[in-house]
Amino acid sequence: QKEVEQDPGPLSVPEGAIVSLNCTYSNSAFQYFMWYRQYSRKGPELLMYTYSSGNKEDGRFTAQVDKSSKYISLFIRDSQPSDSATYLCAMRPGTASKLTFGTGTRLQVTL
Amino acid sequence: DSGVTQTPKHLITATGQRVTLRCSPRSGDLSVYWYQQSLDQGLQFLIQYYNGEERAKGNILERFSAQQFPDLHSELNLSSLELGDSALYFCASTKAGGGGGQFFGPGTRLTVL
Lengths: 111, 113
Fold this sequence. Notes:
By secondary structure, chain A is mainly beta. Chain A is built from no helices and eleven strands.
């Protein structure tokens, strides 16, 4: 079993929809949680960074962490075709530790 | 633009050869991490350096090695290349305290023929 599980998709939604992306994990030591966006053959781009449980909002993006359930989510409001990409969750136990990634969910936002 | 640079963008080489990938972290960042991304394995951590010293190792093959120089740039050396080493190689950097996320470079695409 992988430490971090993420549905690979693809997930196809119409423009303007609310998108929900999720990851589950098994290692209770994880304290820092991130979401990255990766366009095809490009480097991952950091979208959201959160520590421990709670919510964080940045523009159209909201990240949620529920450590009791070992479950994290990323919500995208008013989705745009430019949001079409692969979204990777990542997490680590300490501030300087390596990241453990989910396999990524491929999102397609259609006109 | 994350501020992390990597060269070259693409590398095409033959089995058995040796290549060197280069990474320059963001200004002021002391930690450099190397990751490999292949279609079947996703993003896998290889090795971490902090201010010139190796800090952590992941699933890095013995044929692979890395170092971080006094100017903080890092190089990943891959030798005795095999077809299965074909992948995207990314480096990432973080600030001195490690807080905040890791910022990734654009990657080097390695093709071994």
